[in-house]
Amino acid sequence: MLKVGLITVLLAIELTIYYIFGGLASYPFRVLGYGFLIFWYYSIRKNSINLTDKLFLITSSFAIISPIPAYILAPIIGNLTEFFLIMIGHVFIILIFRIEGSKIKFFDKQNTFVTILIPYILMPFAFFVAVILPIKSLLVVFVTGIYLLEMVYLLVLSAFVPFSEKGKLYISLSMLFLVLASGANAYRTYITDFGFNYGVVRVSTSLFRLFLLLGMLYRNEK
Fold this sequence. Notes:
The protein is mostly helical. Helices cover 79% and strands 0% of the residues. The chain has helices at 2-21, 23-45, 51-65, 68-72, 75-99, 113-132, 138-158, 165-190, 197-217. The mean pLDDT is 92. This is YhhN-like protein. Keywords: Membrane, Transmembrane, Transmembrane helix. The chain crosses the membrane at residues 5-21, 27-43, 55-77, 83-101, 113-133, 139-162, 169-187, 199-218.
């Protein structure tokens, strides 16, 4: 609880500074928050670290470096580069699930097609059709479409991870917040940046990372 409390405090400080001074001023607290998650994971797994753990530490580091281009590059180039780095981070998560034995089997008794179809496929594509397609920018539609395909594959793959029940629960929660964060960020970037949209994105992204970490830590719990 103390660890979660520390992450919560760092996130609250980050958001407070963001709404007062802007994104660049709040970035160090994002680094501290994600850096602590990396330290937390490594401190528990350091004596039995394997390839999966190394890949998880790598993908966690992308959460730290991905925002940098948006601060130092021109808006369009910066946003595209950040998008690209986020997608690379997701590739490492896909690799982790594959290494751990996740295989997509739609007719698995424990993972029905309908259960996966609605939250992991239909809802993301419905958002894409309703919000992104009306945007008259081929670049936006193309880039977001690629991101969507990768995310949907990651979501579906996560439903078949052979983890413990607690591990599966945490992974499912992490994917839920990944969808929420992705949708809110796309709306904020391409439609309009309303009041606390950034807060929704940051809280959702942080919960995605936190639950992913817990899922990985409890993956072999019996």
